[in-house]
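Private note to self, pasted from the team thread so I don't lose it. Backbone tokens:
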């Protein structure tokens, strides 16, 4: 019998086991039996019992486990006569504490800190008063310095990092408690301090899914035209798998002429998937001179912080120094520095940084937000559905004359003149909806009155729908169709995607709408060969793709 429990009943008749109010854990070789603990857990529990003044439980099976004497309220063991007896003497307690393997537990229970010895009896809820003349208060002035030094040391090791409430909410809940527009910077003149820095390499990051909206026009006037610049097009993982990288770089160079920058190289990367980051790190290391700092510059929500994390992931021990990154624009509110010594094997040699690089850092600058972006009118919840977060699958449809294609309530494209039909290929994560021009205008009027429609985003209550900006004409463009199976031009909606138009015809006129009439442009086709040949009867089968 152990604590009044028959072992045979406990093993042969599992349904007849009595329910004990208090059941002590003991080791057993049978993994399915009650109280099973592996040897490592059993050793940790015994060490805790030693520190707490409890007896050691020995044995490796239930048969070898001795019975445990009941304990008094103060934690001491009761003898046979009912009187309490001390389990460990003071010398035994000190010996048990010295035998602890964890240095931090040993420091806590012995009263020793990493920076000296502290008397446990003198530690109370209140801090010593430095104004008093007692000898105990002589070290009070250095108490805060010791604690701060230990916190800094643990933070450098990636442990116990102290963050603000905003960063904690962004990291664990992917939201902010106030409108995210309040935290963004919209004036590119905030980057003019880089003009007066003489020793730096600028890494200009843009969103490959939002060209040219994610580029800052005439950026060289703000950061300086003499600095070496490496241009990085991020989010390449969102494009179809069969894109041609060299052809895409040549297409991308067309939009870099107005930047006025000293561009040394161009890279297509995916910071989230670590695609092309090793080639980028090698290029930065080759072009960077000793002692030069690195600055990440670009629009908001293009992935600058995530690119820094990607470089840290390919470094030795760099992952614990990662910075905060999220899908919400304006996550980085100030200039954040990461020392280059944390980028071992990525940006600095494996044997360690050079003497000139000991004070060098990689800086993450706040993103410059564009007020013309369509996503500027969305809430943090609506951003999740509007911004593309996985590889896009383009769909080809037929757009007839006097018909409109609607991208939720964020924009629409109409064919108002020209051929009977054109072919459109949609590159966006927002579900498109096809209807005639009159029906499209009626849906937008209902949205302005606060009525719920099929157009989402935006979504929410009537107040949210009424506050959404009205659609206005963003552009009206006349062009010529050049090829039957290759796209002629793209109609780009800033921040949410684009629509490629294919067909051979002498002339056609399109009209695009957007909130407040901003954020829409035409450009040469980015991926002209993604058009899939369809018959004139396919668009009638389903107006809205699943």
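Design output:
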């Amino acid at each position: 019998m152990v604590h009044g429990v028959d072992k045979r009943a406990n093993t042969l008749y599992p349904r007849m086991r009595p329910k004990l109010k208090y059941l002590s854990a003991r080791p057993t070789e049978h993994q399915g039996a009650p109280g099973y603990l592996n040897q490592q857990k059993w050793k940790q529990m015994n060490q805790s019992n030693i520190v707490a003044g409890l007896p050691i439980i020995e044995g490796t099976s239930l048969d070898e486990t001795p019975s445990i004497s009941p304990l008094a309220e103060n934690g001491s063991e009761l003898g046979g006569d009912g009187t309490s007896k001390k389990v460990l003497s003071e010398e035994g307690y000190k010996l048990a504490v010295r035998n602890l393997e964890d240095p931090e537990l040993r420091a806590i229970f012995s009263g020793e800190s990493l920076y000296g010895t502290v008397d446990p009896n003198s530690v109370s809820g209140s801090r010593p008063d430095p104004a008093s003349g007692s000898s105990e208060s002589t070290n009070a002035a250095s108490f805060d310095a010791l604690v701060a030094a230990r916190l800094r040391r643990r933070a450098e090791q990636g442990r116990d990092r102290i963050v603000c409430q905003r960063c904690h909410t962004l990291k664990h809940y992917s939201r902010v408690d106030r409108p995210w527009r309040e935290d963004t910077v919209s004036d590119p003149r905030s980057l003019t301090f880089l003009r007066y820095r003489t020793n730096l390499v600028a890494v200009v990051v843009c969103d490959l899914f939002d060209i040219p909206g994610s580029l800052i026009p005439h950026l060289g006037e703000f950061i300086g035209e003499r600095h070496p610049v490496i241009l990085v097009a991020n989010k390449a993982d969102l494009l179809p798998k069969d894109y041609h990288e060299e052809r895409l770089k040549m297409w991308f160079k067309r939009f870099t002429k107005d930047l006025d920058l000293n561009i040394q190289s161009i890279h297509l990367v995916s910071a989230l998937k670590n695609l092309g980051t090793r080639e980028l790190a090698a290029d930065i290391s080759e072009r960077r001179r000793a002692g030069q700092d690195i600055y990440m510059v670009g629009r908001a929500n293009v992935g600058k912080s995530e690119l820094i994390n990607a470089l840290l992931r390919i470094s030795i021990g760099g992952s614990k120094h990662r910075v905060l990154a999220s899908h919400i624009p304006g996550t980085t509110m100030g200039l954040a520095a990461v020392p280059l010594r944390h980028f071992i094997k990525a940006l600095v040699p494996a044997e360690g940084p050079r003497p000139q690089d000991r004070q060098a850092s990689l800086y993450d600058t706040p993103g410059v937000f564009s007020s013309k972006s369509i996503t500027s009118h969305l809430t943090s919840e609506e951003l999740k559905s509007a911004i593309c977060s996985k590889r896009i699958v383009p769909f080809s449809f037929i757009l007839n004359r006097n018909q409109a294609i609607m991208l939720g309530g964020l924009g629409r494209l109409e064919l108002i003149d020209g051929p009977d039909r054109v072919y459109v290929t949609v590159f966006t994560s927002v579900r498109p909806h096809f209807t005639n021009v009159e029906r499209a205008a009626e849906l937008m009027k209902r949205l302005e009155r606060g009525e719920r429609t099929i157009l989402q985003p935006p979504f929410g209550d009537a107040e949210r729908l009424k506050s959404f900006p009205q659609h206005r004409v963003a552009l009206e463009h006349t062009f010529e169709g050049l090829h039957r199976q290759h796209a002629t031009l793209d109609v780009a909606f800033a921040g949410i995607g684009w629509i490629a138009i294919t067909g051979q015809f002498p002339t056609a006129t399109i009209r695009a709408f957007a909130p407040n009439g901003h954020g829409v442009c035409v450009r040469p086709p980015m991926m002209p060969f993604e058009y899939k040949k369809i018959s004139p009867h396919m668009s009638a089968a389903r107006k809205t793709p699943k």
